[in-house]
Every structure is written in C-alpha cells, then in structure tokens.
UniProtKB/TrEMBL annotation:
Native species: Nomascus leucogenys
Pfam families registered for this protein in UniProt: Glyco_hydro_18
Domain of life: Eukaryota
Quaternary assembly: Interacts with STAB1.
GO annotation, biological process: carbohydrate metabolic process
Role, per record: Saccharide- and LPS-binding protein with possible roles in pathogen sensing and endotoxin neutralization. Ligand-binding specificity relates to the length of the oligosaccharides, with preference for chitotetraose (in vitro).
InterPro entries: Chitinase_II/V-like_cat, Chitinase_insertion_sf, GH, Glyco_hydro18_cat
Entry keywords, A to Z: Lysosome, Secreted, Signal
Gene Ontology cellular-component terms listed: endomembrane system; extracellular region; lysosome
Protein name from the UniProt record: Chitinase domain-containing protein 1
C-alpha cells in the first residue's frame, strides 16, 4: 500500500512539469514502438509466416488482431470443437459471434449445482445466462449446441452426496433448467470433486481406462485437461506433445471411443518467476505487452512442441529489483501441431478458453 501511495504522489508531483522531445528522441521512441495492424487480413494465419518454429516477437505483435475475415466461418478441423466461455472474459462472447461456425459446442461457464437437502437440488448462477447472446450465436452458426454446456460444477459435494437413490430428482432439476434456459445439454465437472474425497482410484491418473469404458456408452464426450503439465517448482512446458498423446492412448488404447474424446487446448501461456517459485497464466493482452516491452527471442522446444522465451522483469518496490522470468508462450505453431495430433488420433478438441488467446488462432480451426 505504501508503494502505491508513493507512486501516486510522484505522478501528481510531476504532472505540472512539461517537457518536449527533440527530433532525435522522437525517432528513438518511434523505433522502439512495435507496429500493430488494426485491419482484418484477406489471408489466413497459415499464409502470413506465423505458423512457424522460428517465430519473431515483432510478427506476433504486428498480426495479433488480424484474422482472416473472409474465412471466419470456414471450418478446417473436421472433429468436434468445444469452446468454453466465461463471464469474466467478455471477449470470448465476441469470438463466438464471429467464429461460431467453427465450433460444434459452446460451453458458457455460468452455473453451479448445489445440494439443498434430501432430494433437493438448486442450480445457481442463472443471473449470468445471456439469452440475447445465445440467440445471436445460433443465428450465425446453424447446428451449434449451446449448453452442452452450462458447466455446472458440483461444488462442496461429498462422496456420499453421489447416491443412486437421488439420481431421478437430480435429473429432473437439471433437465428443467435446460428447458427453461434453452440449453442443449450440460458439461458437468465432477471428477475433481470425487478425487478430493480420495475415494476415486488408487491407480495412475485421476481418470483411467476403466472409468472411461464404463462412462463412454452413456456420455456424449469427455473434455480432457491436457495442459498445465508443469508446476511453479518445476517450470517447463504447458503440454508436452508426447504426454498429450499418452493421455489419449491410455484412456482408449483400442480407439473404440476416440470420437468422444476432446483434447484440451490452452489459449493462454504461463509466466514463471524463477526466483520465487511462482507462476501465473498469461492471456493475450498481457502476452502482447510482454513482447512489446522486452522483445524476447522466441525459442522452439522441439521436444514439447511449444515456444518459450526468457526475460528480465522489474518488480515494483524499493530499488525496483529485477528478477528472471520464463514464459511458455501461446503460439499458432503449437496449436497447429496439436490439431494435427488430434486428427491423427481421431479425437476432437476443447479450448480453454475463448477470448484468452490471439484472434488469428481461430484461423486454424
């Protein structure tokens, strides 16, 4: 708090002072500013030198707002594509209006399923439901399912709350909400809740081939979280390609239900503060600002099939201490490689989340 007040005081104290830049200073300032296109492109990202391993920060900044408007409704990926949309990222709503035809399902993260007593359930979060947006998206994307979706997390449930004798009442509650809100279905996040109770499995992984085989015949799909592989204590790639492949093959080694698997794609990068054993996700706007501020050398990790870069950042505080930062970046080449893997494995993809990445990413779908 003290640092914040000092900064405000300095800004106010300096505000009456007026200075001018000399011509040479102006030229230097201009040369440090990376250009950004503000118009759409008539070429997809694949034809603009951005789906490459030798990526340049200047190229990313220049093109990040520029998607191919003439092919915004064309699909290049034949499998199912599920996109998550959240209330805290409004750009995701805009993305679905423009690129809705590229998706087969959209899942707004609006709802929570809560227990209110014996055979009593309530769906909360209905205030976030935007019927106008749903109508607009469906108008431009025929056949798109919204609400395969809802993503109602079962918050604060215990293992004993999942009882067979209450399935009927639970089903009535969620079906009625789907009818009232014009949803086509639900994406339900359950497994993490069960895992926290330590009653799921003692085998390798949270969700194994055994559970997959039991549920595959009765569910429309499975959204895999094939990202966030590395930790703050062990910085590294977000989703090593060999690990992503293994996740699918372990679940369905005989390819019996592959079409129901949705390979998770992250549309965000991860920033690691190496001196603090800390990490935080980085979405499009901050990613672009980091590239502008530091102009780092982008390095392709051929093993993980991801780009990363290192840079030094200055923390606010006494002395403005510098610390090293490593960033696993979000890039078109990484996404393209994973889309090719999805085609090879015969699976679909799920994206967390729409609006987080760069606009030209959607040219790939």
């Amino acid at each position: 708090m003290r640092t914040l007040f000092n900064l405000l005081w300095l800004a106010l104290a300096c505000s009456p002072v007026h200075t001018t830049l000399s011509k040479s200073d102006a030229k230097k300032a201009a040369s440090k500013t990376l250009l950004e296109k503000s118009q759409f492109s008539d070429k997809p990202v694949q034809d603009r030198g951005l789906v490459v391993t030798d990526l340049k920060a200047e190229s990313v900044v220049l093109e990040h707002r520029s998607y191919c408007s003439t092919k915004a409704r064309d699909r290049h990926f034949a499998g199912d594509v599920l996109g998550y949309v959240t209330p805290w990222n409004s750009h995701g709503y805009d993305v679905t209006k423009v690129f809705g035809s590229k998706f087969t399902q959209i899942s707004p993260v609006w709802l929570q399923l809560k227990r209110r007593g014996r055979e009593m359930f309530e769906v909360t979060g209905l205030h976030d439901v935007d019927q106008g947006w749903m109508r607009a998206v469906r108008k431009h994307a025929k056949g798109l399912h919204i609400g395969k979706s809802g993503r109602p997390g079962v918050e604060d449930w215990t293992y004993d709350d999942f009882r067979n004798d209450e399935i009927e009442e639970l089903s009535k509650t969620v079906v009625q909400v789907a009818k009232n809100q014009h949803f086509d279905g639900f994406v339900v996040e359950v497994w993490n809740q069960l895992l926290s109770q330590k009653r799921v499995t003692d085998q390798l992984g949270m969700f194994t081939h055994k559970e997959f085989e039991q549920l595959a015949p009765v569910l429309d799909g499975f959204s895999l979280m094939t990202y966030d592989y590395s930790t703050a204590h062990q910085p590294g790639p977000n989703a090593p390609l060999s690990w992503v492949r293994a996740c699918v093959q372990v679940l369905d080694p005989k390819s019996k239900w592959r079409s129901k698997i949705l390979l998770g794609l992250n549309f965000y990068g991860m920033d690691y503060a190496t001196s603090k054993d800390a990490r935080e996700p980085v979405v499009g706007a901050r990613y672009i600002q980091t590239l502008k501020d530091h102009r780092p050398r982008m390095v392709w990790d051929s093993q993980a099939s991801e780009h990363f870069f290192e840079y030094k950042k200055t923390s606010l505080g006494v002395g403005g201490q510098a610390s090293a930062g490593a960033h696993t970046s979000i890039c078109a080449q990484s996404l393209q490689v994973r889309l090719e893997l999805a085609r090879e494995l015969g699976v679909g993809v799920s994206i967390w989340e729409l609006g987080q990445g760069l606009d030209y990413f959607y040219d790939l779908l």
